[in-house]
């Protein structure tokens, strides 16, 4: 059996305020905006690191899926408000510099840079929608 050639193209994170999410990912994290599409009052924003054109994050309205029930929508909104619905793990060579930039950008700090017992150094913040953003230091 041969190995498959698969890459990560995009991950999806919900947003409840497209302008606030755009400002966070573009202005605070420094990601480039690759697409910004509106449809029926909703907005999908695709962002990603400038030097990684093949990897993106799609910021999507959490209520866009027609298969989601009203009860599920309420649960999603409640989980987003608590910061327990979605998250992503990013990496940087300069964790302290990145953390300082996040603090200057008024990100909601969950955890300052910390040596974890499982062998990584990381920090955690929440984006404007409550998504957990963990950032690990590359070694």
TrEMBL record:
VOC domain location: 7-138
Protein name stated in the entry: VOC family protein
One protein family per Pfam: Glyoxalase
Xref: InterPro entries: Glyas_Bleomycin-R_OHBP_Dase, Glyas_Fos-R_dOase_dom, VOC_core
